[in-house]
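User: I'll paste a sequence; please echo it back and then give the predicted structure.

Assistant: Echoing your sequence first, then the prediction.
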Amino acid sequence: LALYGTARSLIDWHARHGFCAVCGGGTAPVKGGWSRKCDGCGAEHFPRVDPVTIMLAEHDGRVLLGRQHRWPEGRYSALAGFIEPGETIEAAVARELYEEAGVRAHNVRYVMSQPWPFPSSLMIACMAEVESDALTLDPKEIEDAIWVDAAGVRAAMAALPTAPFIAPPVMAVAHHLLLHWLAEQA
């Protein structure tokens, strides 16, 4: 997945950066495709990675999962959002949880990361405790959200027909974040 992600990210980046951000001149790949150089001003441009927080909010032995409008019916996953300029990972987790679900987070903990080539993100997975399980959803961001206990997460990860949701695919960091949370519950 990492090799595919690297290739996909570079191909997408090259397709979007044919012109210099400094002077508008054309750019050409250099250094084996790991950068582009402007034909006009000589500025060198490098691929960027966009940091994204993806998180599970915890409250009373349950985790918060949400679903986007475009996902298959029944699919739920961790909430996520881009980190804004000047923002820490912890602040982004707290902001995203509040904006998308109306919950106030504290005790944000980093768990793992994963490159995600759609188009060029670094998913930074975290856990956060929240003060209350009362939700106020942003319907533009999330179609629905549910609190799920460990038994429900286990059922979803095992793809049981009685599971309260369809788990994220195994290639997604959200899947591994759920596994991490389950291991903490044992």
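The chain has a mean pLDDT of 95. Residues 2-16 form the longest helix (15 residues).
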